[in-house]
């Protein structure tokens, strides 16, 4: 395990998320004292986290401990993201790379928009599925992909890079965004989709959000400000944000700019984030104890 500063602003001081240990089997999650970002400070290596996802989490079922995209709820949100991109920037005849491609369901959806697709996926099992369905892919983490000969051939060739419910599960969100930046053509677009959970109306009880599994399997908990800040300090101009306040999905698109492009952080107040989790805990106790 190694300890990390805030991935957004670099601050090392952080506050514990109130009551989180009751939901995480004693594991800590923190709130950055400077920008309010919610993240896990202590993490295993990128390879270990990817192996846990491949060997422990991916399954044929979707529940509190396992995951598959082959369920109606996940297919619906992937379809939402595909249409969100198409309406904003037109997918037809474009080249799209999906990082964290999983079983390839999103690639199947995007093919219906006549886009050309490529997947990056750490799981051997999932990459076998991608190949069997005719999709080109790289079998490994995004970090390993960036060091590969295949990456050199594809650098600067994509119109779109997508990460759907993947960035929140990565070892380094900053490194992941950097991989996307290098893959994109000048003025290409990144699209990040995550759950809309932080500083919005509560959408589920806290024990359905936090888990007793290793917290570094899901080390990042993005608010709209946090995800916007990450993109705008990584060479992207945010061009479109969905109506995240009353949906389950937070979806943000950014256009590649010169690396010198940056904007001041639009911080979340750390005290507001602390109060948010206190209220979420109380709401869970008051209304959701039997669920």
Principal-axes shape call: globular
The oligomeric status of these chains comes to single chain
Spatial sequence of strands, sheet with the most strands:
8-7-6-9-10-13-12
Order of helices and strands: EEEEEHHEHEHEHHEHEHEHEEH
Share of β-strand residues? 15-25%
pLDDT averaged over residues? 93
Q: Helix/strand-derived class?
A: alpha/beta
Helix tally equals 10
Terminal residue distance: 33 Å
Mind telling me the C-alpha Rg? Answer: 18 Å
Count of β-strands: 13
Poorly predicted runs of 5 or more residues: none
* Major sheet description: 7 strands, mixed
Measured as a percent range, the helix fraction is 25-40%
What does this structure look like?
The chain is about 35% helix and about 20% strand. The protein has ten helices and 13 strands. The chain has helices at about 45-55, 70-90, 105-110, 125-130, 140-145, 150-155, 175-185, 205-210, 225-230, 270-285; strands spanning about 1-5, 15, 30, 40, 40-45, 95-100, 115-120, 135-140, 160-165, 185-195, 220, 235-240, 250-255. Helix 3 links the parallel strand 6 and strand 7. Helix 2 packs across helix 3. The longest helix is centred in the N-terminal third of the chain and has 18 residues, at about 70-90.
């Amino acid at each position: 395990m190694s300890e990390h500063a805030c991935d957004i602003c670099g601050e090392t001081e952080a506050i514990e998320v109130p009551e989180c240990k009751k939901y995480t089997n004693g594991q800590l999650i923190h709130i950055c004292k400077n920008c309010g970002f919610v993240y896990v400070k202590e993490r295993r290596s990128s390879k270990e986290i990817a192996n846990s996802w491949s060997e422990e989490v991916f399954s044929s079922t979707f529940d509190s401990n396992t995951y598959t995209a082959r369920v109606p709820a996940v297919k619906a949100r992937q379809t939402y993201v595909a249409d969100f991109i198409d309406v904003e920037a037109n997918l037809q005849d474009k080249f799209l790379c999906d990082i964290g491609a999983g079983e390839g369901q999103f690639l199947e959806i995007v093919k219906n928009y006549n886009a050309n697709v490529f997947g990056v996926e750490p799981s051997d099992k999932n990459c076998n599925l991608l190949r069997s369905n005719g999709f080109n892919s790289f079998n490994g983490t995004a970090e390993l992909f960036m060091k590969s000969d295949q990456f050199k051939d594809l650098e600067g060739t994509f119109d779109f890079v997508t990460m759907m419910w993947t960035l929140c599960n990565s070892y380094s969100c900053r490194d992941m965004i950097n991989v996307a930046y290098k893959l994109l053509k000048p003025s290409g677009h990144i699209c990040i989709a995550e759950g809309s959970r932080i500083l919005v109306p509560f959408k589920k009880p806290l024990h359905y959000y936090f888990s007793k599994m290793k917290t570094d399997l899901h080390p990042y908990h993005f608010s709209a400000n946090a995800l916007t800040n990450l993109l705008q300090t990584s060479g992207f101009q945010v061009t479109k944000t969905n109506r995240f306040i009353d949906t389950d999905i937070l979806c943000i698109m950014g256009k590649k700019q010169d690396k010198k492009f940056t904007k001041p952080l639009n911080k979340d107040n750390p005290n507001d984030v602390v109060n948010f989790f206190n209220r979420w805990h109380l709401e869970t106790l008051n209304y959701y104890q039997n669920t």
